[in-house]
Amino acid sequence: MPPPAHGAAVDTHAHVFRQGLALAQVRRHTPDHDATLAEYLALLDAHGLSHGVLVQPSFLGTDNSYLVQALRAARGRLRGVAVVAEDIAETALHDLAEAGVAGIRLNLIGLDLPSLQTPAWQTLLTRVNALGWHVELHVQAARLPDIVPALLAAGCRIVVDHFGRPAPALGTADPGFRYLLQQADSGRVWVKLSAPYRNWPASACAASGREAAQRLLAAYTPERLMWGSDWPHTEHRHLASYPAATQWRDAWIDDPVQRRALLADTPLRLFQFQGDES
Predict the structure, then answer these.
(1) Dihedral-angle region of residue 164 (phi above 0 means left; psi in -120 to 50 means alpha; beta otherwise)
(2) Which superkingdom heads the taxonomic lineage of this protein's source (predicted)?
(3) What residues are paired with 190 via a beta bridge?
(4) CA torsion angle for 104, 109, 115, 120 (degrees, to 10)?
(5) Which of 61, 166, 180, 278 can bridge 5 by disulfide, Cβ–Cβ 3.0-4.6 Å?
(6) Which of 65, 62, 67, 64 is nearest to 16 (CA)?
(7) Are 232 and 35 in contact (CB under 8 A)?
(8) What is the pLDDT along the chain (278 residues), one digit of tens a residue?
(9) Spatial separation of the C-alpha atoms in residues 79 and 249, rounded to whole Å
(10) How far is Cα 231 from Cα 229, in angstroms, rounded to an integer?
(11) How many angstroms separate the Cα of 79 from the Cα of each of 69, 192, 215?
(12) Is 10-271 CATH 3.40.50.1820?
């Protein structure tokens, strides 16, 4: 891919949904509001962001139809991360790819870890790799050592959500966060700097997020870090906003060269944005 055009910038983590959609039977949260594509695109415009990534909300389960609808309506400005069953048909994966999906998400908060050694999972991961996709992990830092090795052994590229979800009481001293730092040597792990309020009190989001971001920068470099707004901040709307998310980002990463890399170069490559970097 050629270098991104001047001004390109990507928000790598947001969700769209509306009330009335079919919800997963097992879920941690039931939304009481809409988060529409039009709202999200307006926020990107208002904050000077050229592209975005929509992540399938956990409460919608494996029905990615609303996500796909939004991706198609955005005409290449957005990419998606889907949630799929391990036995999904290969044709269905190709349909998702055609719509703009670039990865699958394992949101394992409150759930058991999947048995990745089963034939169904191994087949799925092989197909994910063949598409050039990644596997996005949302799991507490303490559980990363229980799943990251199996994904690496399967040849996957891994994107870890929300600073790796260190325990609030431990922060960067969490052994799971230290384990995440060590995985930089694999060359196949990326980390999203996003949703600090899921790890720390709101008053500490700037300072604690900066401490974690600087440690991740030292280990991963900006070439394998990305930023996400986590809009619409589900379950945390009282603590966050889109302007706050951008202000935290700028507090964490104040070097303009580093910021450009993690806002543009890295996500444009990983999420397969091509030909529309302006």
Answers:
(1) left
(2) Bacteria
(3) 159
(4) -30
(5) 278
(6) 67
(7) yes
(8) 233 345 799 999 999 998 877 777 777 777 878 999 999 999 999 999 999 999 999 999 999 999 999 999 999 999 999 999 999 999 999 999 999 999 999 999 999 999 999 999 999 999 999 999 999 999 999 999 999 999 999 999 999 999 999 999 999 999 999 999 999 999 999 999 999 999 999 899 999 999 999 999 999 999 999 999 999 998 888 889 999 999 999 999 999 999 999 999 999 999 999 754 43
(9) 21
(10) 5
(11) 12, 15, 28
(12) no
Q: Tokens 């029905």 label which residue?
A: 63
Give me 10's structure tokens. 């990507």
Amino acid at 237: R
Residue 271 corresponds to which amino acid?
F
